[in-house]
Write a structure and sequence with these properties.
single chain; about 270 residues; Ribosomal Protein L25, Chain P; Alpha/beta knot; 7-stranded parallel β-sheet; 6-stranded mixed β-sheet; 13 strands; about 35% helix; elongated
Amino acid sequence: MHRFFVAHDILAPIVTALQAQMPGSDASSERMMNTGSERSFCVTLPDKIAHQVRDVLHLGEGEQLVLLDNSGDEFLVAIVKSGRAGVEVEVLERRRGKSESTVRIVLCQGLLKSARFEWILEKGTELGVAVFAPMLCRRSMAGLEEAGSAKIQRWQRIMQEAAEQCGRARLPELLPIRPLLHALSDIPRGALAFMPWEEEHGQSLREGFEGRATMGAEPTTVVLFIGPEGGLMAEEVMLAREHGVQVVTLGARILRAETAALVAVANVMYALGG
């Protein structure tokens, strides 16, 4: 079933009406009110989504789709009117969406060329990354530090489309671009932080988790630091160690930056059941 994120204010009146009609109700069990009710709850889709529904997907009256407002809830709706003037849908059900992973991954990614960074945003969203934190490293390509509003909007759109495709009910957070030092200084208390580095030949990522497990602490937030195309410099790795980051290896083969990011995320999810 097709899924679309919409602005919160589009569905806010529906939520308010539901709360007034069914005080104390839980969205996880709110199968709608419209059935057998004199009042229906309808919304008009934004123009871009209406175009997608009507002209690209060719969905007609009676067909269903899911709207999301980034609250964690899903709104099952059915098309009741479709024409050049717009597309109107009736809300059939409000339900709890898929819960986010119990593992909160913060991916601090050294800036890459646009296509590669966008690929990480897309695939990282599919894998369950909670926060993307683009960062400037010593070997980041010149000119990448400035991201205008158009580029930020494009990045947000890539994450949104990936979240719609993979069934997430909440969007990942995208932090502003900042230097590596700022990202290191912002590691949450109690988080487990790793920096894969091609020059590390001792501890693996798996061993880092095993060492944590023996201490009886199960991390819920994992921060991953991935370097840019040119890799991380020894001085940057030393700085990371000083901030409590575990430097690890991802194996014998040297991976491209975008590959290393997704391999690390997938391994974290596998190791911690996310």
